[in-house]
Task: inverse folding
């Protein structure tokens, strides 16, 4: 394998395009490019298409996608899915009690109510990391060679053996099977700017026999385990370090506002700067999503509202049908307040089916007239320790609306006072409302205080999907996708006997969803917020970083010391790659406490990043704790004022 070291991402793209053109001479030929992230894959395919006119026939896959494809080719997709998905968590839940019986420290930990499922999820993450980064240790454990372990961690080998036997999954055997499938692939392969490859996956790349691997500046560590030729440096000398600005403020919301103002100023000062040249990097997009969406997608008259920033979707977002099913579960598990139910009725996955989308105002007026406050009915309120009283619940509200249709504003059955504002034109709307609330009530009877297997809960989710969800024609694919996902989960967990509550099922579902329909939109002309591992080497005119003070460097709980790579250091390397690819670097950080106003120390991650860049720490541009609105200022008109 050839190794070529370039100075920038964009400077190496023409070399990759030329290599693909020379290798794939037939319009039916196939090629494979291994890339670091989905966002990079999208941008790289666009660059190749721009240079060659087309990028058809070339698959741009991440390491995870490549492994899943090889598992399908080798016929071990079911075992791989069980290891990567929530089935591993339920397998641990079934095995952990027997192991804990022999280890008092683990038994005492699991005896605390509410700890078992979170612990099983954590153990699943830990064992996956062991299989990827310490395959030789895992192979020794599975052969009965536990070695010397600290007493409080001595339970891990026995638990790992139990779940691997139950799932029929042996990491070393699976790795050999996948490597064999890779060797049989016979597709021209290239590796482009992949910095981290776990030991488990290195044999797969070597079996693929890539034609060439491109990297930025230095040979990545993983290539030491893969045979390759002497690296060749290509391209121009390294460019100058980026211009750095650091902006300091207080709360998360205020930092997002400062980011918006700083970006707006950059676009005004640099007319040649385009949204495609700008990237916003955040180590914790899920945590920052509420404030970033609120600031960049608000309806205020702030000039920054003109910035086209794509909505920051959380890990579980992306499919309205699944969102609606989970929202229905939340409703019946909670108080079912009027705001929660109305928001559910008007959601994009529910309102088209039941006719609420075109009659929003009428629906709100009817619900307001029915005087609904919270609770599906009297027995629902009784679960919260209150008297069995249906007044101001959805039950009484629906009865009042139906009575109003039949009898007007007079007392009806059981003394229910009809809603006078109703007319015969509201009959279909009230009927749809009564039907949806009735189906939510049936779901509550099924899910309330129930403990089902994962497969059982998946079947309940499918029934909820069929009974409540109905999207517009153009989004109907989401229903099919959701049904496929829940069906796959039900099938994968058929052997499982672990009983879960509704909240535990939801937690596992949310952990299973992110990789199923992530569709990166980088390169569509909008500004995007990305995690550090996404599009890290892609050249940018401006990189803005926010939330660097949220970076944690601790090891995984229960991790054997020195076994796994330091996640904090990996994140720091990824941030450095983003910064090195930028011409201008903006860093937004919290410099003052939002509660006391006291000055805070600069995050270590920022100082380390600038030291690695070779840039001195610049003066921090401080911002007020609240934005200034000049519309509230009145200047006197009877005398001159210097501004």
Result:
């Amino acid at each position: 394998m050839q190794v070529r070291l370039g100075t920038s991402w964009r400077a190496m793209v023409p070399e990759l395009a030329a290599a693909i053109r020379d290798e794939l001479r037939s319009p039916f030929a196939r090629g494979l490019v291994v890339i670091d992230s989905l966002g990079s894959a999208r941008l790289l395919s666009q660059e190749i298409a721009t240079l060659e006119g087309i990028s058809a026939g070339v698959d741009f896959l991440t390491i995870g996608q490549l492994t899943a494809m090889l598992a399908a080719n080798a016929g071990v997709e079911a075992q791989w899915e069980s290891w990567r998905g929530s089935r591993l968590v339920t397998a641990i839940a079934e095995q952990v009690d027997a192991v804990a019986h022999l280890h008092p420290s683990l038994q005492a930990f699991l005896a605390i109510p509410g700890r078992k499922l979170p612990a099983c999820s954590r153990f699943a993450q830990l064992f996956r990391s062991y299989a990827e980064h310490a395959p030789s240790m895992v192979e020794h454990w599975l052969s009965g060679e536990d070695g010397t372990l600290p007493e409080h961690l001595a339970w891990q080998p026995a638990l790992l053996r139990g779940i691997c036997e139950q799932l029929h999954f042996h990491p070393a055997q699976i790795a050999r099977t996948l490597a064999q499938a890779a060797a049989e692939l016979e597709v021209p392969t290239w590796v482009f700017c992949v910095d981290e490859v776990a030991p488990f996956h290195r044999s797969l790349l070597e079996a693929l026999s890539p034609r060439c691997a491109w990297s930025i500046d230095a040979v990545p560590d993983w290539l030491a385990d893969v045979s390759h030729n002497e690296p060749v440096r290509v391209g121009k000398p390294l460019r100058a370090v980026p211009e750095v600005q650091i902006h300091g403020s207080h709360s998360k919301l205020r930092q997002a506002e400062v980011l918006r103002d700083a970006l707006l100023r950059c676009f005004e000062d640099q007319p040649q700067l385009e949204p495609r040249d700008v990237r916003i990097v955040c180590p914790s997009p899920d945590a920052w999503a509420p404030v970033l969406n609120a600031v960049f997608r608000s309806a205020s008259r702030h000039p920054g509202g003109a910035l086209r920033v794509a909505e920051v979707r959380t890990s579980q977002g992306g499919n309205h049908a699944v969102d609606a099913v989970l929202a229905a579960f939340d409703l019946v598990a909670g108080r079912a307040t009027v705001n929660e139910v109305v928001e559910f009725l008007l959601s994009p996955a529910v309102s088209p089916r039941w006719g609420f989308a075109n009659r929003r105002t009428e629906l709100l007026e009817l619900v307001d007239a029915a005087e609904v406050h919270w609770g599906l009915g009297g027995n629902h309120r009784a679960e919260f320790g209150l008297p069995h009283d249906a007044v101001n619940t959805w039950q009484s509200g629906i009865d009042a609306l139906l009575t109003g249709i039949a009898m007007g504003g007079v007392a009806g059955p059981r003394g229910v006072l009809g809603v006078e504002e109703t007319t015969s034109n509201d009959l279909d709307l009230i009927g749809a409302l009564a039907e949806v609330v009735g189906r939510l009530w049936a779901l509550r009877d099924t899910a309330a205080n129930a403990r089902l297997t994962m497969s059982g809960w998946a079947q309940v989710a499918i029934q909820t999907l069929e009974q409540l969800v109905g999207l517009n024609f153009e989004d109907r694919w989401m229903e099919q996708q959701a049904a496929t996902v829940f069906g796959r989960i039900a099938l994968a967990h058929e052997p499982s006997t672990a009983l879960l509550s509704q909240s535990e099922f939801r937690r596992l579902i949310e952990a299973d969803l992110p990789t199923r329909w992530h569709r990166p939109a980088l390169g569509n002309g909008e500004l995007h917020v990305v995690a550090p591992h996404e599009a890290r080497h892609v050249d940018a005119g401006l990189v803005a970083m926010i939330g660097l003070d949220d970076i944690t460097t601790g090891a995984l709980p229960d991790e054997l010391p020195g076994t796994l790579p330091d996640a904090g250091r990996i994140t720091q390397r990824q941030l450095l790659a983003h910064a090195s690819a930028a011409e201008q670097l903006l860093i937004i950080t919290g410099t003052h406490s939002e509660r006391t106003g006291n000055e805070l120390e600069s995050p270590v991650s920022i100082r380390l990043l600038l030291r690695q860049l070779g840039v001195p720490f610049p003066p921090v541009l401080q911002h007020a704790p609240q934005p200034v609105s000049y519309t509230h200022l009145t200047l006197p008109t009877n005398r001159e004022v210097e501004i």
About this structure: The first strand starts at residue 2 and ends at 6. The CA atoms of residues 33 and 190 lie 5 Å apart. The first helix runs from residue 9 to 23.
